[in-house]
Write a structure and sequence with these properties.
Blueprint: H1 2-7, H2 17-48, E1 52-58, E2 73-79, E3 98-99, E4 114-115, E5 125-130, E6 143-148, H3 152-155, H4 180-183, E7 192-205, E8 211-219, H5 221-229, E9 236-240
């Protein structure tokens, strides 16, 4: 009986070709997976050592000259860089600031993109002034002159013609050999500067968020009185100094 048991051959499983191929494929997949996990772990260790900092990113499109609010930005984390050293990091830091450039949604807010809230200079008063159009290249805080298309004498009779530029007709001789400017009276300019070195505080905003055709402007009290005495139909033009 024992001799029969010892003489019986041991049975080992026999793997077919298809099974061996499946095992080889599984081993390759397992090696690839292990390598990927190792690379991911290394990257996690590397990124953990990179310094980051908070920054503000615009949540919507911002137009130049727009007054910002805390709701216009969100806080994100970016890799630290020297160029971001003085950038605002909290929404309250940009409250009531003025945008100096157009900033599409997702723009990082840098110090060069915003300006502090303009302050009316001492001795001036701020009034709402209706403008003929929004002046190009003028932002809140800029110094401007206000001009109307009418002679100064018609609105300020006691004002000298210092701010008016005479119109000189083209030079041509009359039949008697005299120039027209020697015989014809000087025609006063139809342009008058009614405010100089005024400070643009902010452009007015409509209910839909667009810029209105008026602005808050700081100027000398006597200039403000002149502005308030103008008829509504008379356009006022703002020019940057």
């Amino acid at each position: 009986m024992r001799q029969h048991e010892s003489s019986s051959p041991s049975h080992r499983p026999h793997l077919g070709l298809a099974q061996r191929r499946r095992i080889a494929i599984m081993r390759r997949v397992a090696r690839t997976l292990l390598i990927a996990i190792a690379v991911f772990s290394i990257l996690q260790c590397v990124t953990a050592t990179v310094a980051t900092q908070p920054m503000l990113s615009t949540t919507g499109d911002i137009t130049r000259g727009q007054r910002l609010t805390a709701n216009d930005v969100t806080v994100i984390t970016v890799p630290a860089h020297t160029s971001f050293a003085n950038a605002p990091t909290e929404p309250k830091h940009i409250e009531s600031r003025i945008a100096l450039v157009d900033m599409p949604a997702g723009t990082l807010v840098l110090p060069s993109h915003i300006r502090g809230t303009p302050v009316a200079p001492e001795g001036t008063t701020v009034i709402e002034t209706r403008l003929a159009s929004k002046p190009e290249g003028v932002d809140a805080g800029d110094e401007i002159d206000l001009i109307i298309g009418q002679a100064c004498a018609s609105i300020m009779p006691d004002t000298s013609d210092a701010s008016e530029t005479p119109e000189t007709p083209e030079s041509s001789e009359t039949p008697d050999g005299q120039h027209p400017q020697d015989t014809a009276p000087t025609t006063p300019s139809r342009q008058c500067t009614i405010a100089t070195q005024a400070t643009l505080i902010a452009f007015s905003q409509r209910a839909d968020g667009t810029t209105a055709d008026s602005a808050s402007i700081a100027m000398r009290p006597e200039e403000a009185l002149t502005i308030m005495s103008l008829p509504d139909s008379l356009p006022v033009i703002a020019t940057r100094r």
